Every structure is written in C-alpha cells, then in structure tokens.
C-alpha cells in the first residue's frame, strides 16, 4: 500500500499498522504489550518502507525445475538504522526484521524536561553517546524514534548523523508525530523524508503530543 503524502510527512496507512497504533495509544495497554506493539509497528513500517521507497529489479531465478522471471529488492545491503535511545529500542528491534543486514548506529539523546519547553517551542537536548557506522553515498539511512514532538531531538540527532556527508537517502521513521516537529525538521533538513504512522493534532504546554500515546520511553521501559 503506498504511503500517503501529507504536509511534511508520508503516512503509513496499512490497516495493521493503524491497528497496532490504536493499541499503543490505549491507556489500558500494559508495559509488555506496549513494548511488543512497538516491535510489531517497527516491522510493519519496515515492510512499508521497502514496498514504497526501495527500487526492485527483475531478472531470472533457477528453481529446481526451470528458470523463471524473478524480482529482487535493491539496496537492502546498504541500509543504516539509527536507534535514538531509548524509546526507539523496541521499534528498531522490529525494523531489523525487515532489514536484517542493516548496519546500526546508536545515539543517546533526551529532552531536558525539567528545563521545560522554551518560548521558541524547543527543548534543550542532552546527547551523551554517539556511535555511528561509516555512512556512504550509497546508503539509505533510517533514523528511528517513535515520537516526534517539537523536533528538538531529531534536529540534534540529524546534525550528528549528516555532519560527515550525505547518504543516498535519509528517512526519519516515527509512530506518532506532531506538526511543529515535522515543520522544524523539514526546515532544517529538507532532504530528509519523514515517514510516520500518524500526524497528530498538537502539542500540549509540556511538549507532549495530543492525543499521542503518552511517554513512549516510560511506557516501554516501565519507568515514570
Ligand atoms: O520531538 P521532541 O520534542 O524532541 O520529543 C521527542 C523525543 O522525546 C522522547 O524521548 P525522551 O527525551 O523522553 O527520552 P526517552 O526515550 O529516554 O524517554 C522521544 O522518544 C523522542 O526522542
Ligand atoms: O508525547 C510525547 C512527546 C515526547 N516524547 C514522548 O514519549 N511522548
Ligand atoms: Mg521519554
């Protein structure tokens, strides 16, 4: 199913992805089910990304009985997945089912929620750990973070990832995103495509997405 184009984002409309997102949103969903839901959603989003953004090539394959026309996806061996700690960890686990040979990077970036959202609608972001594979011009980079709220985290993360040169393509993949974050990331990185399962209505005064699904890190890791 093709991704649906929205302002600053492409939306995964696959019915099962929307179903899993509904479970993630529910306040009744337990920690274990929440984490499993993020894994499922990562896998489904990976499949959708392959279906709509990766080229295929045709050739032939030799079965035990005959040669027959065959289709293969190109570029699967040139994928880099970046895990934005910590909420992306289960999401990446699912994504790796679609891209098992991906090279992986990890960036620990978190919002300083005690400082609060500034007048400019941004959070101070603390980056504590960055470990990235070499990224080449043949690569497709997928930066996974289930939540894009103000976009402060993602702009900081993309600054780190794209500092040393441009990959062939770069996607940000989220479960839920909010218009202010989408706009901020698009302005800073117009070359990056944002793929998301939902564009929600707005942010509240604390910088949380409404309706959203709450604090994804806390729900997945059972912290408060
Ligand atoms: O768009 P932003 O306003 O920057 O918000 C989004 C970020 O907030 C959450 O992380 P958080 O800082 O809560 O860290 P955590 O994953 O460790 O919970 C989420 O996982 C994103 O990384
Ligand atoms: O709504 C939000 C915003 C940022 N981070 C989350 O986990 N949830
Ligand atoms: Mg959090």
TrEMBL record:
<keyword id="KW-0460">Magnesium</keyword>
<feature type="binding site">
    <location>
        <position position="209"/>
    </location>
    <ligand>
        <name>uracil</name>
    </ligand>
</feature>
<dbReference type="GO" id="GO:0044206">
    <property type="term" value="P:UMP salvage"/>
</dbReference>
<dbReference type="GO" id="GO:0004845">
    <property type="term" value="F:uracil phosphoribosyltransferase activity"/>
</dbReference>
<protein>
    <recommendedName>
        <fullName>Uracil phosphoribosyltransferase</fullName>
        <ecNumber>2.4.2.9</ecNumber>
    </recommendedName>
</protein>
<dbReference type="Pfam" id="PF14681">
    <property type="entry name" value="UPRTase"/>
</dbReference>
<keyword id="KW-0021">Allosteric enzyme</keyword>
<keyword id="KW-0808">Transferase</keyword>
<feature type="binding site">
    <location>
        <begin position="145"/>
        <end position="153"/>
    </location>
    <ligand>
        <name>5-phospho-alpha-D-ribose 1-diphosphate</name>
    </ligand>
</feature>
<comment type="function">
    <text>Catalyzes the conversion of uracil and 5-phospho-alpha-D-ribose 1-diphosphate (PRPP) to UMP and diphosphate.</text>
</comment>
<dbReference type="GO" id="GO:0000287">
    <property type="term" value="F:magnesium ion binding"/>
</dbReference>
<dbReference type="GO" id="GO:0006223">
    <property type="term" value="P:uracil salvage"/>
</dbReference>
<feature type="binding site">
    <location>
        <begin position="214"/>
        <end position="216"/>
    </location>
    <ligand>
        <name>uracil</name>
    </ligand>
</feature>
<dbReference type="InterPro" id="IPR005765">
    <property type="entry name" value="UPRT"/>
</dbReference>
<dbReference type="InterPro" id="IPR029057">
    <property type="entry name" value="PRTase-like"/>
</dbReference>
<keyword id="KW-0342">GTP-binding</keyword>
<dbReference type="GO" id="GO:0005525">
    <property type="term" value="F:GTP binding"/>
</dbReference>
<feature type="binding site">
    <location>
        <begin position="36"/>
        <end position="40"/>
    </location>
    <ligand>
        <name>GTP</name>
    </ligand>
</feature>
<dbReference type="InterPro" id="IPR034331">
    <property type="entry name" value="Upp_A"/>
</dbReference>
<keyword id="KW-0547">Nucleotide-binding</keyword>
<dbReference type="InterPro" id="IPR000836">
    <property type="entry name" value="PRTase_dom"/>
</dbReference>
<keyword id="KW-0328">Glycosyltransferase</keyword>
<feature type="binding site">
    <location>
        <position position="215"/>
    </location>
    <ligand>
        <name>5-phospho-alpha-D-ribose 1-diphosphate</name>
    </ligand>
</feature>
<comment type="similarity">
    <text>Belongs to the UPRTase family.</text>
</comment>
<feature type="binding site">
    <location>
        <position position="111"/>
    </location>
    <ligand>
        <name>5-phospho-alpha-D-ribose 1-diphosphate</name>
    </ligand>
</feature>
<feature type="domain" description="Phosphoribosyltransferase">
    <location>
        <begin position="11"/>
        <end position="223"/>
    </location>
</feature>
<feature type="binding site">
    <location>
        <position position="86"/>
    </location>
    <ligand>
        <name>5-phospho-alpha-D-ribose 1-diphosphate</name>
    </ligand>
</feature>
<comment type="pathway">
    <text>Pyrimidine metabolism; UMP biosynthesis via salvage pathway; UMP from uracil: step 1/1.</text>
</comment>
